[in-house]
Amino acid sequence: MATRISFRYLLKRVLVSVVVIWALLTILFLLLKAMPGDITTRLLNPNIKPADLQNLREQYGLDEPLWVQYLKWVRNYMVLDFGYSLRSPTPVIDLIIERLPRTLVLFTTAYLLNLTIGTLAGIEFGWKRGSVEDRTGFMGGLTLYSIPYFWLAWLLLLVFSYQQFGLTWFPPGKMTPSFESAFSSVELFTGVLWHLVLPVVSLSAVGWAGYMLVMRTSMQETLGEEYIQTARAKGLSPTAVKYKHAARNAMIPVTTQAIVGIAFLIDGSVIVETVFSWPGIGALLVQSILNRNFPVALAAFFMLGVLIVSLRLVTDIVYTYLDPRIKFGENQ
Known about the structure:
- There is one protein chain.
- The chain is mostly helical.
- It has two domains: 16-79, no CATH class; 96-321, Orthogonal Bundle (MetI-like fold).
- The chain has twelve helices and no strands.
- The longest helix is centred in the middle third of the chain and has 38 residues, at 185-222.
- The chain is globular.
- It starts with 6 loop residues before the first helix and ends in a 14-residue tail after the last helix.
- 27% of the residues are buried.
- Residues 328-332 have low confidence and may be disordered.
C-alpha cells in the first residue's frame, strides 16, 4: 500500500510533539522554582557558611536572572544534561540509561498483550453480539477495567508469591533472583521472564479490557454496514468477512484508544514497578520523590513524558494506514 502521509503532515505532527515537550519542560521548571528553597539548601546542612553557600549558588547559576536560568534549563534538558543525583555523585543520565530499558521491557510486553488480546476479544464478542459469550465478556471486561492496578498487583502477590494461600509460584519482586550477581545468558533470560509474569499480568488483566470494549462496540456497528452484507452475499467465508472486511474497518477507534492508552499504561507501569520493586524509571521516580532527590525525579518525569509523546507520534502515523478514507496533509 502506498503511503498517504505527506511531508507537510509529518512535519506538522513532529512540530506538535516538539511543542508538547517544550511545554512539559516549562511546567517542570516552574514547579522546581515554586518549591521552597533551592537545590543548594537541599544539598547542604544548615551550618554552612554564607560565603560557601553563595559560591554554590553561583556554581549552579542560581544568582542569574530567572529567564537565563530557564534558557539554560531548556538547553541542558535538550542535550540530556540533567545534572547529578543529590544522593550520590552519579550523573542523572546514567541512572536514566540504566533504568529505561527495564521500563521498556515491562511496558512493551504489557502494551502488546493488551492490544492483541483486547482487539481479538473485541472482534469475537462483537461478531457474536447478543450471545452469552458476548454478554459474559462484556461484563467481565467492564469489571476488570474498573480495578485499580495497585489493588490487583497486591492481590496477585498475596495469592502467588506469599504463603497465605500456600502458593509461592512467582517471585514477589525485583527483576532477577535475589542474592545472585552472575548469570548465564539463559539464566538471565529465564529469570527476567519469570519475574516479569506478575507485573505484566497486573497491567494486562486491567488494560486489555479497554481495547476490548472499544473494539466490541466498533465491530457491532460495522456489521450493520452494507458492504458487510455484500461480502456475505458474494459467498465469502465467515472468517474472511469477520477479519478482512469487518475487523479491519472496525480497527480505527481501537487505534485511537491505543494512542490514549499509552499514557494510562505508563502511569500504571509506575505503580506496578513500585509494588513489585521492578528497577525501572517508574520506581526511580517514586523513590526520588520520597527522598526529595529532585534532579532525578524531574529527569525521570521528563523521560516518561518524552516516551509518551514519541509513542503517540508513531501510533498517530500508523493510524493513516488503517483508514484508506483519510488523506493526511491534503486540502480535502
